[in-house]
Structure formats: C-alpha cells, structure tokens
UniProtKB/TrEMBL annotation:
Record lineage: Bacteria, Bacillati, Bacillota, Clostridia, Eubacteriales
Protein name in the entry: Diaminopimelate epimerase
Family: Belongs to the diaminopimelate epimerase family.
Gene that this polypeptide is encoded by: dapF
UniProt xrefs under NCBIfam families: DapF
UniProt EC number: 5.1.1.7
Length: 279
C-alpha cells in the first residue's frame, strides 16, 4: 500500500506527518511509527504525528503524536508548531490557529516565515500530575533521585507530558545513551518520563540535551524545553516574564513563563519534503 507523508522538523526534532483528517489514524500506527522512524533503513524520524479533524468547536485541527517506539504521548511542542505550519500551507491560511492535542487545545500564532509561537498552557510540579511515586506529593523541586548507583537532584514538571529536569555543569560531556534509559524507566515514573539535562549559561540563556520517552536522544524537545525553563524558574535561576533562550542540539527555542505559571514557546517549523512510501 502507498502512504503519502510530509517530513517536517522543528529544531531538528523531526517527525513524519500524516494527513488523517478524512481517513482517521491507521490501525497499525504503532507498528508504522516503529518501522518508518528507523534511520538509514526507512524515512527515519523521531516518530509519527497524525493530523486529524478537530474535536473542539472552532479548532483548526487535532494532532496525535506517536514516539519512535510506537507509544502515544499527550503532546509534542515542536510537533504542534509543525502542525500549524502544515495546516497553514495546506489551505488553512490563518495567522492564528487552534490545534487540539492530548493535553488540550493550543493556540499557535505565526510570527514570521516558518516561525510560530505556542500558548502551551500551565505547568505543574506536583507528583500526581506526572505521575511520580515514592517522592511525596510535591512540588517536586530539587529532590534527590537515585538512578542506578548515582543520586541526582531533579525537578519534575508536567506540561501535559512528564519531564524530569537535571542541572549539570557540562551537557556536552554526558553519555545520554548510557544514562537516559535508566531515567526513562525509573520505577518512580510509572508512565515513564522524558529527561532533560541543562547547563546554565546565565539566567536567560541555557543549553540543554534531552533523552525522550519512547524516542531516545532527540536534537530538541519543545515540551522538554518548556519544562526546563519552568524548573529553572521554580529553582530561582530564570526570571519569570522574560524570554529565556535555550540552545538545543538542533537549534534555539525561546520560552517565557507568564503569570499563572503559563508557558509561551517560540520556534521554527520547517517542511523537509513530501513523499510517498510503500508500507
Ligand atoms: N519531542 C516532543 C515530545 C514528544 C513526546 C515525548 N517523547 C513523550 O513521550 O512525552 C516535543 O517537542 O515536545
């Protein structure tokens, strides 16, 4: 069977986008994501994002995100900007769009060519929001977490999906493939967790790497970048109400914490190619 797709990336966090507005999400989507995400052997991506018909009145579309291991996540920050760009270039020529996600509708505003700003909604550091267990009710800010034989100081943040943020001296020297899986599958996170390692350059500039639940190291994570800035705001490092510039392996995202602990994210959304593959 032939399958049409669009490959898009936001800060090099790349997904295969499928137009499922009329057809619905393929029944074998988990297997499809595992198969098509394989680098070197297939299209290669961090997963699949299905663009579906909206469920909320007035929304322009809905996204469902499947990681490279086939698991479904609630939300993808880099993906939601790409969905806005895809809708914009496929007939929904509005400067502000609303996209339904697994963590509620998000409003996305076009700020320039291939540049979008997302109202990400609020964050929470409470254990029940992630969920996290064996760590108390929270807020889970600067808590000890023993992973294999080392104890780290972690701040746990939900932005719809779960994140564990760790401040380190030097992100480049970390061997994420060695330490990432043990965080992801730590028993304190029954639904697994995304893990962000962040180096503080100064109070408004950060450098971050991420080990994503279900996809391994990716070159950027939008929700992870939001969670990182939220964590560093809770830790008193980053000021709320100011733009925080976060350097990722694949580019820069700008995050601002607004009043009410709400997050605003600005970043690129780029179409790589459109194609047809045999599945
Ligand atoms: N890369 C994404 C997040 C994708 C989902 C994540 N791996 C999860 O399982 O929660 C982003 O840009 O936010």
């Amino acid at each position: 069977m032939k399958l049409s797709f669009t490959k898009m990336q936001g800060c090099a966090n790349d997904y295969i986008y499928l137009d499922c507005r009329e057809s619905g999400v393929p029944e074998n989507i988990a297997a499809l994501s595992q198969d098509l995400s394989r680098r070197h052997f297939s299209i290669g991506a961090d997963g699949i994002i299905c663009i579906c018909a909206p469920v909320t009145a007035g929304a322009d579309g809905r996204m469902r995100i499947f990681n490279a291991d086939g698991s479904e996540a609630q939300m993808c920050g880099n993906g939601v900007r790409c969905v806005a760009e895809w809708l914009y270039t496929h007939g929904v020529a509005k400067e502000t769009l609303v996209v339904d996600t697994g963590s509620g509708p998000k409003t996305i505003t076009r700020k320039g060519r291939q540049l979008w700003q997302v109202e990400m909604g609020g964050y929470s550091a409470m254990a029940a929001a992630l969920p996290a267990v064996n760590m108390g009710e929270g807020p889970l800010v600067d808590c000890p977490l023993t992973v294999e034989d080392r104890t780290w100081r972690v701040t746990c943040i939900s932005v719809g999906n779960p994140h564990c943020v760790i401040v380190v001296d030097d992100v480049d020297s970390l061997k994420l493939e060695d330490i990432g899986p043990a965080f992801e599958k730590h028993p304190n996170f029954p639904e697994r967790v995304n893990t962000e390692f962040v180096q503080i350059v100064d109070s408004t500039h950060l450098k971050m790497r991420v080990w994503e639940r279900g996809s391994g190291e990716t070159w950027a994570c939008g929700t992870g970048t939001c969670a990182t800035v939220a964590a560093l705001t809770e830790l008193g490092v980053c000021p709320a109400g100011e733009d925080i510039h976060v350097q990722l392996r694949g580019g820069e995202l700008i995050i601002r914490v607004l009043s009410g602990k709400k997050l605003l994210m600005t970043g690129s959304a780029v179409t790589v190619c459109e194609g047809v593959t045999e599945v």
